[in-house]
Every structure is written in structure tokens, then in C-alpha cells.
Amino acid sequence: MEQSLLSYAFSLFLSLLFCMITYVFFDLCLRAKVLLAKLQNQGIDGPKPGLILGNITEMQKIKSIKLASDPSVFSLKEPPSLDCSSVLFPHFIQWSKQYGKTFTFALGKKDRGPLLGKGLITTNREVWSHQRKTIASKPQKIYTGYYI
Asked: Does the record bear Transmembrane helix in its keywords (predicted)?
């Protein structure tokens, strides 16, 4: 009786462990590969991402190579250029030359949020209403007539 209960608990533990390993494998590997395969079928290609960090290490490598090859980027002898994208995002320039105008890249498993933030332009409904009320509060609305 005790032996069968112990073997039942052990088999339950092994099956849960197998399910957990399968889920982690699917979450880390297969979901991203399926999504990338769908995009590649549509003609959208990009650099191959790493398992956990995505393309972050490649971005840092390209940026350090760019800064090492062009030390005049941060010199004060010349007036600064208005094209700051080549300094801040050299990986985007390299990848757009390599993969075309539209390409994919990964920033890892952590959600980075929207690129434009959650401002009045990019939000909708409740968040927009709350931000609008915060910016133009009631006392400010009352005194607007005096300013005009």
C-alpha cells in the first residue's frame, strides 16, 4: 500500500516535471521560431536572435565597433551633426543595409513597452481621458478666459 502510494507520487512528480520542461522549451524556443518563420514566409528577414537576450549582444558589439572605428563621433573639434541615428543606432543602419527597409530584431524576453511611450498621442480611452484631465485640470480651465 505504502509502496504503491510512493510510486504514484513519484510518477506524478515526473509527469509534472516533464510538462514543466516542455512548457519552458516551447516558451523559450518554439514560439519565437514559429513567429520568425511566419515573418520570413512574408519576406521579412533579420538577424538571428539569441535564446534569452535576443539581439542585444549583437547591438552592443556593432555599437562598440562603430565607436572604435570612428573616434571623431564625440570630438568637440567639429560641429555636431544633426544625424544622431548613426551614432545612437548604428545597428539599425547596418541591418537596414543588410536586410532591407523592413526587418526583424529581438530585444529579449522582457517586455520593453511601446517605443513612443504612453502619451496623449498613442493612448486611447481611459488612459487618454486620465492624462487629459491631468494636463488640463479644472482650475486651469477656469483661468483660461483671463489669459485670452
From this structure: yes
